[in-house]
Structure formats: structure tokens, C-alpha cells
Amino acid sequence: MDHDSGLRATDALANERTFLAYVRTALAFVAFGYVIARFSLFTQEIAVVAHIVVPRMATTVFGVAMAGMGIAVGLYGGFRYVATDRGLRNRTVVAMPAHVAVVTSVILTAIGTFVAVELLALAHR
After folding, report:
1. Residue 70 burial by CB count (10 A; 0-12/13-18/19+): exposed, middle or buried?
2. H or E element: which one contains 8?
3. Where are the domains of the chain?
4. Which residues have CB under 8 Å from 2's CB, separation 6+?
5. For position 112, what pLDDT does the model report?
6. Cα–Cα distance measured from residue 45 to residue 28, given in angstroms and rounded to the nearest whole number
């Protein structure tokens, strides 16, 4: 670490902790997507035994989408780490763009809506 750059160890370590939080979140999305997709196979097995029809495609697509979100979160975390590190070395603040917060909120709302609709549909079968 260059002492002349004004970069403090606490700032650099905080940036690393934030990056690790992105990594944990990305792994959670990927793992959750895998579980959802595998649960689809389990529900198909149960449907055969119970003689009911359960649409498989929605759950599989949702699982793949969740895994894709994990990839996107991991990539964005890497981008934010590099941008923040560069900003710290240049003694500037690199805030997250507002549009990223809006897009993230919209995506999370869509995920929540999908889950709620699927749960309601499951309750009415």
C-alpha cells in the first residue's frame, strides 16, 4: 500500500469486506437458483405419485434466472471493487449510480411478485 496516495488501510479493508459481501450474495443466488431448479424435479416426481399436473417450466426458468442473477451480482461486485479502489487511490468518492439501485429494486420486486404468484397458485391447486 502506498502511503503517499492517502489510502488508509481501514478504507481498503472495508472495500474488500464489501466485495466479499457481493461474493457471498452471488453465491447465495446461484445456490438458491440450483435448489429451485432441483426442487422442480422433486415436484415432478411427487406429481407422478399424486397423479396431479404441476407445470415444470416456470420453476426451472426461475431457478436459472436466480443463478443468472448470482452471476450478475458477482460481476457487479468485482466492478464496484475496482471502481472503489481506484477512487480511494485518487481520493475521490465513487458512489453507486442511482439507476443501479432502481434496477435492483425493480428486479427484487419482480422476483418477490413471481414467488408470491407461484405460492398463491400452489395454494389454490
Report:
1. buried
2. none
3. 3-95
4. 89
5. 86
6. 26
